[in-house]
Automatic annotation (TrEMBL):
<dbReference type="GO" id="GO:0043565">
    <property type="term" value="F:sequence-specific DNA binding"/>
</dbReference>
<dbReference type="Pfam" id="PF06719">
    <property type="entry name" value="AraC_N"/>
</dbReference>
<dbReference type="InterPro" id="IPR009594">
    <property type="entry name" value="Tscrpt_reg_HTH_AraC_N"/>
</dbReference>
<dbReference type="InterPro" id="IPR018060">
    <property type="entry name" value="HTH_AraC"/>
</dbReference>
<dbReference type="InterPro" id="IPR009057">
    <property type="entry name" value="Homeodomain-like_sf"/>
</dbReference>
<dbReference type="Pfam" id="PF12833">
    <property type="entry name" value="HTH_18"/>
</dbReference>
<keyword id="KW-0805">Transcription regulation</keyword>
<keyword id="KW-0804">Transcription</keyword>
<dbReference type="GO" id="GO:0003700">
    <property type="term" value="F:DNA-binding transcription factor activity"/>
</dbReference>
<protein>
    <submittedName>
        <fullName>Transcriptional regulator, AraC family</fullName>
    </submittedName>
</protein>
<feature type="domain" description="HTH araC/xylS-type">
    <location>
        <begin position="189"/>
        <end position="287"/>
    </location>
</feature>
Amino acid sequence: MSNSLASEIARFATTDGIHQTAIPRLTLVRKSAPTEPLHGVHQPSVCVIAQGRKRVMMGDQVFVYDADNYLTVSVDVPIVGQVVSASEDEPYLCVRLDIDPAMLTELILDMRLPETEERRCECGIALARTTPELAGAFMRLVSLLASPDDITMLAPLAEREILYRLLRGPQSAKLRQIAIGDSRMRQINRAIAWLRSNYADPFSAETLAQEARMSLSSLHFHFKEVTGVSPLNYQKQLRLQEARRLILGDRLDAATAGHRVGYDSPSQFSREYSRLFGAPPRRDIERLRRSPGPLEEA
């Protein structure tokens, strides 16, 4: 089944890159060679590789997956992703579906899944084995790109089947946390949403805890459990990734970009930029401009 899914992805992703599609929330990825590590914030989604292999790093945790396993992301998490197996003859081919919380909630209700009292947080990333049924559902969704007039009516049915397969699989509890209004994961999501909206402002642990409706100690413990980093380091990564985009895309100088994202000290900005990306801003940007490609993981 993975070969069939690979053929469908290759059919519509004919060039290397990240391809947004006419189907809402569906993205196809093709790479004909291994990539450098790419930084990004991964949104809640499921990623199925049809061909090739990839490494994803979150904090100090490493996840390696291929056509035998799919990746589930249940919360916005900062990651470093790297395609490690790809070639011209056998390119890396992947399909990603962002999770629609409303559709997920509706399906949980329709399936009459028993409510759970579990409030324990888990890592925001997990791997599980790709079944023929799940790969087949993805293949049917991707194949709709050949008949645009059918997308409006049939894509939601295929997407619903994918979510059904996921809820029947080993990652059901993790996905259900996205939809449970009073879950610990929802509290962490509130903290993440606040950080993403206010990343350039001075960090306030007390304000963040109030937004999440958690105690300070609980916030720090569960936030790192889910995202792999502390709230402060999460904010730093958001700042530095945006500064990198401003320098490369908007051609701002490093000092201006650093100030734009909340750094008052250019030297501190340069130090933290080097620590995350492996080189100071000028050298990093020169390298990126010599090797054009996506800045962020998809």
